[in-house]
Amino acid sequence: MLDLEAVASVLADALEAGVDLVQLRDKTASDDALSAAGGPMRELCARHGALFLVNDRPDLALALDADGCHVGQADASAEAVRAELGPERLIGLSTHSPEQFDAGLHTEADYLSAGPVHATPTKPGRAATGLALIEHAVAHATKPFFAIGGIDAETIVPALAAGAQRVVVVRAIRDAADPGAAAAELRSAIESAERNEAEAHAR
Prior knowledge:
Blueprint: H1 4-16, E1 21-24, H2 31-47, E2 51-55, H3 58-63, E3 68-71, H4 78-85, E4 90-95, H5 98-104, E5 111-114, H6 132-140, E6 145-148, H7 156-161, E7 167-168, H8 171-174, H9 179-202
Parallel strand pairs: 1-2, 2-3, 3-4, 4-5, 5-6, 6-7
């Protein structure tokens, strides 16, 4: 069951530290629990200028007035979700191989995720792709993409070095003793990589 107080506390700290997109994802929670959590989450995100998305459920995304919906390979197609959500809301699509990534570029998805880069309990049974999928995505992307799976303060560095510019994080913030500090450290790593890339192009 979702601990609404804990969710609000972690989310507030993470948003203060610069997290700019939040996804409501709980595969076991009831619709009532998701709705109860989603309302305050959406309000917190709006207060901080962050996007709020719902996993898997375009109907719930509409009910919560979310900014969009993220779907996986086994969920409704991006085209079906677009038909339900309309043209204004965002759609994300998970991909786990170069073939899925390339196919995702030709769907109604606005952005893709690529991974899991490392094995993670949030994707049970899903084999790690390693950095190779990030490298493939960098070479072929025509849409924004996020590296996902086992990203933390240590693994973010090679992910960024491989070309990722955006990352999805769950446990590294949610389970941290200080979620705000953890989020700030990850944000700092991304900004440092952006500065290094800008300096390299300026030379």
